[in-house]
Write a structure and sequence with these properties.
Blueprint lengths: L16 H8 L18 H17 L3 E7 L9 E7 L2 H17 L6 E3 L6 E6 L2 E7 H7 L1 H5 L1 H7 L1
Parallel strand pairs: 2-5
Antiparallel strand pairs: 1-2, 3-4, 4-5
């Protein structure tokens, strides 16, 4: 029993600041930045970049080079280029050469995924996406079937 006039000590919340934050609940996050693509590249600029890509791949002895127009069909790019290489080293070299030539052409940011010895290298050049495959991987993924004009004919 407490004597009259004595105060009951109120305990502070136990635990570390981390536990206190967890007990307080989640913070409301600020809205994320827009995920929309920046302004589109002019068609004449796209044609010039695609010509650089096609020439570079041809010079590097890529096989079965295909360009697909994605305009109005995909939000991530306006064009796609697909090519086949015979070996990992050839595919890696093609990716490096493309990166160099696109940067020389004024593209500030060229992103490459998978260039360290895989069956598939993806190069994001903004409005043009380039896929470099070994033959077996290209057949498995079938991007031409997925994005080619034949798909539009069957959907209509």
């Amino acid at each position: 029993m407490l004597a009259s006039g004595s105060k009951l000590a109120v305990p502070t919340s136990p635990g570390t600041p981390r536990k206190k934050a967890a007990a307080a609940g989640p913070k409301v996050k600020a809205p994320r930045a827009s995920t929309k693509r920046p302004t589109k590249t002019e068609p004449s600029r796209l044609d010039a970049l695609q010509a650089i890509i096609m020439t570079s791949l041809d010079e590097d002895k890529a096989e079965n080079i295909v360009a697909i127009d994605l305009q109005g069909r995909a939000a991530f790019a306006d064009r796609m280029v697909i090519a086949t290489g015979l070996a990992d080293r050839q595919i890696s070299a093609m990716a490096v050469h493309l990166e160099d030539k696109l940067e020389e052409a004024g593209l500030k940011r060229v992103l490459i995924e998978g260039a360290t010895g895989s069956d598939w290298v993806l190069i994001d050049a903004g409005d043009i996406v380039i896929h470099l495959f070994k033959a077996e991987a290209r057949e498995i993924y079938g991007l031409e079937k997925m994005w080619g004009p034949d798909l539009d004919d069957k959907a209509g």
